[in-house]
Every structure is written in C-alpha cells, then in structure tokens.
C-alpha cells in the first residue's frame, strides 16, 4: 500500500454500513468528509472502541512507539505477518484495535519502459460500498492533541489480479469482521485470526487508472478518483 486513500462520505454512512448497536460517545461532524487524497501525517477520521460505546476521532495517520520517536520516520502501515509479534507494535497489539473507514486507496505502477514514471490507480469496492481498514491506534483523552497519538493501517499480501497493481493491500474487513475487530470482547486469538485470514479477496474490488494529480498532497476533489479515458 503506497500511502494514499479516500474517505469522502459522511460518517453516518460508514457507521450505518457497520450496523453497530453501539452509542457513539463523542460528537462528530455529520457533513460529508470530502477527503479524496488522504496523505500520511494528516489527521483523518478513525473509529475505535471506547468505554460505553464507540469513539470517532480525527487521528494522525502515522505512529511510532515512544522509544523510536525522532529516531526514524513514523510508520503508516503494519505488516500482518509481523504486527502481532514485532517489538515495534507491542504497545498497540491487541488493545489498540481500530477501523479506518474509506472509499478506496491508491497505488502507483511503474512504467515498464521508464521506472521513474508511475501511473496511479484507484482501487475501490466492486459494489461501491465503503471499505473498512483494520488499524491499530494510540489515542489519549483530552481536548489538546497529544504528540503520542497516531494510527497505522495493517496490510496483507495482495492476491490474484491485485498483485499486478501492488504486492501489498490494506487489510480490508467486511462489516461483520469490522464489528468483531472493534469489539473489546473479541479475544486476542480471534483478532489474530482476523489479521491472518480476514482480508477481503481481490475479487471484491475494482480498479482503474486515475490522474497523476493525486501525487500532489494539496490536490483534492472527486476528479482524483475518476477513471482516465485512456492512459497518457
């Protein structure tokens, strides 16, 4: 996963898709989010369990443990193969489980003739429904932003046709598995099963080339996810 995704509907749409019988304990904006080009280090909506229900927070995409702050760039992704056993994410697993709602994500394919030239592709659900990325987060209470706060998206090996786009993909959960992932009563063993085998298959997705304008983090708007009529 190359580090860009979209989340542009209103939060109520994602919560309805999850069909959660839980109260959202904090306030959130009911307007369309309209983020078509979410980049690392920016704050974006995240759904996570909280005492008495759920919390919807705007959290920075990117995280590192306290002992690694300033020593290396913050990571935005965590590999499914090592997230449960590696030292780096020890403080997040399994209690930091969260869900990053999305509508799709971007990948860049190198030109077969010139590897320096890359064509962005947009991947979304075949039925155009919202996506739910399995995530791990550290979020501290309070009105002020805590510098320790952040989240990472878990990634899995790509399968079938998606391999032609990129060798990794976000760990996209069905709404039912996303509910399990968010449930504090879900055991560590069951959460591990979801990481290992819960990702939706390539057959659930569609993809198309998009404008290279998505490469500029300042660009936003629905045109970024629209298919190119033909490759340049």
UniProtKB/TrEMBL annotation:
Protein EC: 3.4.-.-
One of the record's GO molecular function terms: single-stranded DNA binding
Keyword Protease attached: yes
Signal sequence interval, chain numbering: none
Alphabetical list of SUPFAM superfamilies matching this protein: BB1717-like
InterPro entries: SRAP, SRAP-like
Record GO biological process: protein-DNA covalent cross-linking repair; proteolysis
Entry similarity comment: Belongs to the SOS response-associated peptidase family.
Name recorded for this polypeptide: Abasic site processing protein
